[in-house]
Amino acid sequence: MKNTIPEVDAYIEKSADFAKPILEKLRKVFHKADPNIQEVIKWSVPHFEHDGLVGGIAAFKKHVSLGFWKSKEMDDPHDLFDGDPKASMCAVKFSDVKDVPSEKVLVAYVKQAVKLNVDKSKTPKSTAKKTAKKKVAKKITVPADLKAALTKNKKAQATFDGFSYTNRKEYVEWITEAKRDATREKRLKQAIEWMAEGKSRNWKYQNC
């Protein structure tokens, strides 16, 4: 692998024994997907860049996390992001190297993440701003299935009604960005459960 840095070597070396093979495998995936990717240390953990941040890996006491910087914009054909906020760098967790998806699967995700960065770098700023405004305008509309589910759960409805614009938008985006019906139904059910408990979309990470 080219474009590696000793700081990442040191990070992997000092990690727990269970985490080392996972980190090494994920690191290899980033470089195989994009030979021009660059390694950096940000927020004390390894990250990978190509026209901006692509993703990162981090070792914890009982798991290793893999995250993509633009995961909210990515397709998720293997449901790797289900159950985690897609903007988070802790989108996917692995406790054993056997849990890590195949190299082919992960390489496709990295290539997709790199392409998002490259395409964005080629987009004129004025056009990007107009596109962003259009997206916001569409996503603040509550979809019919979410409305129907809320009417059946008074606690969830009360929570949603009391949410700020941002909190509502996060839930709506999460549900409407699902690529498959099964994924959308799963997210809708989870959203109602969380809101019934008074939780925002990213409640797990508010104190991280």
Can you offer a commentary on this structure?
The chain is of the alpha+beta class and about 210 residues long. The chain folds into two domains: about 120 residues, Aspartate Aminotransferase, domain 1; about 80 residues, no CATH class. The chain has eight helices and five strands, in the order H-H-E-E-E-E-E-H-H-H-H-H-H. It has a five-stranded antiparallel β-sheet with strand order 1-2-3-4-5. A hairpin with a 2-residue loop joins strand 1 and strand 2. It is elongated. About 5% of the residues have low confidence.
Broad CATH class of the largest domain: Alpha Beta
**H and E order:** HHEEEEEHHHHHH
The helix fraction, in percent, is 40-55%
Number of strands: 5
What keywords describe this structure?
208 residues; alpha+beta; Aspartate Aminotransferase, domain 1; 5-stranded antiparallel sheet; 8 helices; 5 strands; 50% helix
